[in-house]
Write a structure and sequence with these properties.
CATH class of the largest domain: Alpha Beta
Largest sheet: 5 strands, mixed
Order of helices and strands: HEEEHEHEHHHHHHHHHHHHHHHH
CATH architecture of the largest domain: 2-Layer Sandwich
Strand order of the largest sheet: 3-2-1-4-5
Distance between the termini: 69 Å
CATH topology of the largest domain: Nucleotidyltransferase, domain 5
Strand content: 5-15%
Oligomer: single chain
Shape: flat
C-alpha cells in the first residue's frame, strides 16, 4: 500500500476489525541513516494483512487513531515503537511477545525460535538483513515481511496461557504497560562516546579527535542518507585519533583508510583532526563521560567498600531469585536500579525502605515485591560485616 486512497481503505478495514492487531516494522539499519521505518506490516482479524510504505505515506496518524483502543502485538516493542511513533502510530496497550518469552523463561526469544518452540512453525529468515529502503521491494521480501505478522496474535495467545500457568501474567502486563506509557527517550548526551574501541583512547586531545571525526562522519552520513559505518568505520576513527596524523598522506597510512580512499575524503578527515588539535586545553572533553549516577562498579571497592559489599550481596540475591523464577536477572530488576540503590541506600535497610527506594527509581510493583526483601537482607549483612 503506497498511496493515500489505499491508506484510507486500510484505516477503514482495520477500524472495523476485531481483536488485537499484530504490528511490525522493517528498518534499513546498516544501510540508511537513522532508524526510520521503510515498511510497516499489520494484521487483524476481520481486516486481513496490510503492508504499508511509510515513505510514500509518511503520516499514519489516522491509522494510529483508528487503532487507539486496540491492543498491539509487537515483537521486541522497544525496537519498533520509536520508528512507528515517527509516523504517528503509538499504542495505548500492547503485548510484547519477545518480552513475554523472557519473562516465561525461554532461552531463545527471537521471533523465529519463539514461533518454532511455542507454535511449532518455522519462519523463513533469509531476508532479515536486506536493505528495506530498496524500491520497489521485491515480491519475496514482501511475502517474508507479511509472515512476521501472520503468527503474532497466535503466539501472543499461547504466551498468555504460558504466563498464566506460571503465575507471571501480571508481571508481564505491568511491563507492557510501562513500555506503552514510557516517554520518548531524550537525545543521548555525547553520542560519540559510544564509538566502538573508545576505551583505547586515553588522552583528552585524542578524545577530541574522536569527537570531531565522529561528528564529521555523522553529518556526511546524514547528508548522504547512509549508515555512518558505511562512511567511516569506528575502528578507523579510533586509529586516526591514536595516530593524530598531520597530513592526508600520513592519514592514508592509518589502518581503515588506505589508497582506495579519495583524497577529498582524506582531507575532510584531516580537517576534523586539525580542529581537535586547535581546541584549547581547558575545552577538551573530559576523560570520562559526565553522569549523575554512581561510579563504575569496578571503582567501588576503593571508594566505598561497604557499598561494594552491598552491591555484591544484592547481585547474588537477585541471581538466586531470577534462577528460582526462571527469568533473566535483568528482567527481574534493572541492573542500573540495583547499582543506584546499593550506592545510595535507605538509612535503615529494611524491606519497606528498600521497596520505597526502588519504586522511586522506577521499579515496577511486581519487581519490588519480589526483590526488596532479598536486597534489604543483603544490605543488612554488608553493614553488619563492616561493623
Amino acid at each position: 500500500m503506497a498511496d493515500e486512497t489505499a491508506l484510507a481503505a486500510v484505516v477503514t478495514a482495520f477500524a472495523a476489525g476485531s481483536g488485537p492487531v499484530a504490528v511490525d516494522a522493517e528498518r534499513a539499519s546498516g544501510y540508511r541513516y537513522g532508524q526510520r521505518a521503510y515498511l510497516i506490516q499489520l494484521r487483524r482479524a476481520g481486516a486481513g494483512t496490510a503492508l504499508i510504505d511509510p515513505i510514500a505515506c509518511p503520516d499514519l496518524a489516522p491509522l494510529g487513531a483508528a487503532l487507539a483502543d486496540t491492543e498491539w502485538v509487537v515483537h521486541a516493542a522497544t525496537q519498533d515503537l520509536p520508528c512507528l511513533a515517527e509516523v504517528g502510530m503509538r499504542p495505548a496497550r500492547l503485548f510484547d511477545t519477545e518480552l513475554a518469552g523472557r519473562i516465561a523463561g525461554f532461552a531463545r526469544v527471537g521471533l523465529g525460535p519463539m514461533t518454532e518452540n511455542v507454535l511449532g512453525y518455522s519462519l523463513a529468515k533469509e531476508h532479515s538483513a536486506v536493505d528495506w529502503s530498496t524500491r520497489p521491494l521485491p515480491e519475496p521480501w514482501l511475502r517474508y515481511a507479511a509472515l512476521d505478522v501472520e503468527v503474532l496474535v497466535e503466539l501472543r495467545d499461547a504466551l498468555e496461557q504460558e504466563l498464566e500457568g506460571q503465575g507471571k501474567l501480571g508481571w508481564a502486563l505491568e511491563e507492557f504497560a510501562a513500555i506503552a506509557a514510557a516517554p520518548r527517550p531524550a537525545p543521548r548526551v555525547d553520542p560519540w562516546r559510544r564509538t566502538s574501541g573508545l576505551h583505547k583512547v586515553r588522552r583528552r586531545r585524542q578524545l577530541a579527535a574522536v569527537r570531531e571525526l565522529w561528528q564529521s562522519r555523522d553529518q556526511a552520513a546524514q547528508d548522504r542518507d547512509v549508515s555512518p559505518g558505511r562512511v567511516l568505520s569506528d575502528a578507523a576513527i579510533v586509529n586516526a585519533a591514536l595516530a593524530m596524523p598531520t597530513s592526508w598522506q600520513t592519514l592514508q597510512a592509518v589502518q581503515g583508510f588506505g589508497p582506495r580512499v579519495h583524497r577529498r575524503q582524506l582531507e575532510q578527515w584531516i580537517a576534523a583532526i586539525e580542529r581537535a588539535r586547535a581546541i584549547p586545553e581547558p575545552q577538551l572533553p573530559p576523560a570520562a563521560a559526565p553522569h549523575d549516577g554512581p561510579p563504575p562498579p569496578r571503582a567501588w571497592a576503593e571508594k566505598d567498600p561497604v557499598a561494594a559489599a552491598r552491591l555484591s550481596g544484592a547481585r547474588a540475591a537477585i541471581s538466586e531469585l531470577a534462577e528460582a523464577h526462571r527469568l533473566p536477572p535483568e528482567n527481574l530488576i534493572t541492573p542500573e536500579l540495583v547499582r543506584r540503590v546499593s550506592w545510595d541506600p535507605p538509612t535503615e535497610p529494611t524491606a519497606p525502605a528498600v521497596a520505597g527506594a526502588l519504586r522511586a527509581l522506577g521499579a515496577r510493583q511486581w519487581q519490588v515485591e519480589l526483590v526488596a526483601g532479598a536486597i534489604a537482607t543483603a544490605f543488612t549483612t554488608a553493614r553488619e560485616a563492616a561493623q
